[in-house]
Amino acid sequence: MKYITILLALAIASASAYAQDDRRPDRRALERMQDRIEAALEKEGLSDRKRAFLEHRLEFLTLQADIREALRAALAELGEDATDEERKAARDSVRESFAEELEAIKESRRDAARERRRNRGGDADE
Length: 126
Fold this sequence. Notes:
The chain is mostly helical. It has one domain. 80% of the residues lie in helices and 0% in strands. It has 4 helices and no strands. α2 runs antiparallel to α3 and α3 runs antiparallel to α4.
């Protein structure tokens, strides 16, 4: 029983040591993803669907990096003594400034999906 407990404790410690929060990749991770996508887009023989997905993903990652940079600049402008309300207002302002671009990316992706469904003979209005 003692050995099982030790093994279990080691397994948990090992898992938590290597655990990462993948919801928000850091700046270097975003740059690496963008580089990989650009390299993949240069390859020959990509299907139209795969190329459209990669182009959309690259556009989204670029916008995400721009949003983060604008947010960093807005928070740096406020300084260390800014209140939580001022930080929230700055975050909301940055979100609003990029809202139209984000919606345009989403809409272009929806249009591409509708076009693919139309080409397959499916219902395009779903």
